[in-house]
Write a structure and sequence with these properties.
The protein is an alpha+beta fold. 59% of the residues lie in helices and 13% in strands. α3 packs across α4.
């Protein structure tokens, strides 16, 4: 049970890290992000959760977005991109995880 809680905390409850990591490769739309999280990281966040996280990240200035028409599609998709603030925040978050893992690792 403790392991499952930890897995939940470092995946779904910190979804922004996974979103940012994917968007550093290229701009994506929300449903594509959800699919890529499943493929790349092995867990499936709820679609609505991805949207909530994206909207929050954009409000916080970590992402920007723009609507772009897709060939053959009637509805434009909203593509998300990281901002400089978002990239820096991701790097700080990643460093925090590395430092935490280092501190928790037993010394030999």
């Amino acid at each position: 049970m403790a392991y499952e809680r930890l897995a939940e905390k470092i995946t779904r409850e910190n979804l922004w890290l996974y979103v940012m990591r994917l968007l550093m490769d290229r701009p994506m739309y929300a449903y594509e992000i959800r699919e890529r999280i499943s493929e790349e990281f092995g867990f499936e966040p709820a679609t609505i959760t991805v949207y909530v996280v994206l909207y929050g990240m954009e409000r916080e200035g970590l992402l920007s977005s723009s609507k772009e028409a897709s060939a053959g599609k009637k509805v434009a998709r909203r593509y998300y991109r990281p901002t400089e603030k978002g990239i820096e925040t991701f790097r700080r978050g990643l460093e925090l995880l590395r430092e935490t893992a280092r501190r928790l690792s037993p010394t030999s």
